Amino acid sequence: MSIPFYKSTFLGNEINKMYDVASSHNISSDGKYSKKCVELLQQNTSAKSVLLVPSCTAALEMTAILADIQRDDEIIMPSFTFASTANAFVLRGAKIVFVDIRPDTMNIDENLIEQAITSKTKAIVPVHYSGVGCEMDKIMEIAEKHKLLVIEDAAQCIGAKYKGKPLGAIGDMGCFSFHETKNISCGEGGALFIQNEKFIERAEIIREKGTDRQKFFRGEIDKYTWVDVGSSYLFGELQAAYLTAQLENIEPITQRRKMAWNLYYEKLTPLAIKRLLDLPVIPKDCEHNAHCFYVKLKNAQERLELIRKLKENEISAVFHFVPLHSSPMGAVAGRFFGEDRWTTQESERLLRLPIWDGISLNDIEKVVTVIGEFWGE
Q1: Backbone angles phi, psi at 296, to 5 degrees
Q2: Mind listing the pLDDT tens digit for each residue in 277-332?
Q3: What is the pLDDT of residues 26-42, one digit of tens each?
Q4: Pick the CATH number of 250-374 from 1.10.10.10, 3.90.1150.10, 1.25.40.80, 3.20.20.70
Q5: What is the domain class of 13-247 according to CATH?
């Protein structure tokens, strides 16, 4: 494709930092660049604890252990999300309760959550789609009332905020992704943010294969041993070096993406006015990070036809999540609460357009032009 769906961010200085690590012969984990990443993430979010992990999936799995999820516990989340959001809890034996989304933001409908709560409910997992925050004030209020945990799936949210608060650092825990498709990336990687202090010490142990090894490294004990369940949720130092270069430039990266996002919005508005497509909605309380730009078509068939039209012009555009409750595993591991009024309908209309840090004006112009031609505009 002459215009791919995405290009991973590359600034140039990543190579210098990775060479620094390689030449030091200390490439395992928790070195100076890992510490720098944690420092930068805490500066940007004021999170009480930040742990670098191999992926957002790993971060979610750690939250399920920390939350002490047991067989037949229930976890409330949207069906419009990636499999990892549910898998982390299903692996612990939980049942997933899918709640319908809002058609404007594609986020979980906060007004349906409380009705889905039962005596078995253990946690609410809001997914901030496309870096646009869920209604966290209402969700936190419900969680406090029913004594539930809030675990934010903030995979797409680095640099995004809700009422001035960084997403992923509002609930008890938040999970981030640094996959190559994300705004800030290092190929694979993630982070676990912890706001609830009761989880901080145990999270460190779980991450280190269930040992108190970090206490040993800090000189707090004379030897370390196996004290809890855990796994190898560590983050390589070469990845940390790559990630450091990007985190140091998170603001200009975000601003460049927002410029591209705003240009799409401006140039596609005439088609939206004619009701040929729908554009993304950003609530006034949300500061998004331009993670993706999508349009909504009339239905799945029209979306497929537009994808073909774009492909004929060497432009890659893609749909997104297939609702989990409609999947083979989703039917076994969970249930949909209430009516699926919007989840399936809206997911079948959504089409993501090419966007990345540094996408050119000419590329955006071409995409918009081809979309206009699709309707003879």
Answers
A1: -120, 130
A2: 999 999 999 999 999 999 999 999 999 999 999 999 999 999 999 999 999 999 99
A3: 899 999 999 999 999 99
A4: 3.90.1150.10
A5: alpha beta
Residue type, 370: V
State the span(s) of the chain assigned CATH 3.40.640.10.
13-247
Q: Where do you find CATH 3.90.1150.10 in the chain?
A: 250-374
Is the pTM above the cut of 0.90?
Answer: yes
